[in-house]
Amino acid sequence: MKKLIYLLLIGACVSGITACNSDDDVIEEPEVPTPEPVTTIAIDETNTIKVGLVTSLPKQGEITVKLTGDDDLAITGATEFNLLLMGYPNDSAHSVKYELAWHQTYEGKCIEQQDCELSVKELQSGTYLLTLDDVDWQSDVENFKVAIEVQGAKANLDYGFL
Known about the structure:
It is built from one helix and ten strands; from the N terminus they run H-E-E-E-E-E-E-E-E-E-E. The protein is mainly β. The protein has a single domain, classed as Immunoglobulin-like (Sandwich). A four-stranded antiparallel β-sheet has the order 2-3-8-7, with no helix packed on it. Strands 6-5-9-10 form a four-stranded antiparallel β-sheet, with no helix packed on it. A hairpin with a 4-residue loop joins strand 2 and strand 3. The chain is rod-shaped. The N and C termini lie far apart (102 Å). The relative contact order is 0.21.
């Protein structure tokens, strides 16, 4: 019986000593999440506005533009646009009286207007679909020019042809 108690006591001591030994000698540092890179800027925060023509469907009164601001970040939240579509006949159609090419225009204004005359939809960050309703071009119109103006709190892009 003494031997049994003696063996139990030795077994308890051995298990106590080995249980206190830690196998985790390596201290793991908590993983610090890296912040997502900034890819957009709000229209009222940018100091610069640049515009690029993405698609142009002037016969339907639609154009898609890409707006970029400071550090070429995509501009979000833009609503203040003016759009001018100009349609011209082919090169051989001129006014008899002035021998100049005639033109037809449609304009949509949303800058400082109570009622916006232009549908503005942000398709994705920095990409906008601008649509003029009730566009009815004369049948001779074949060539088009597009001008756009954009306004933000800190920056404006004055009317310019794209």
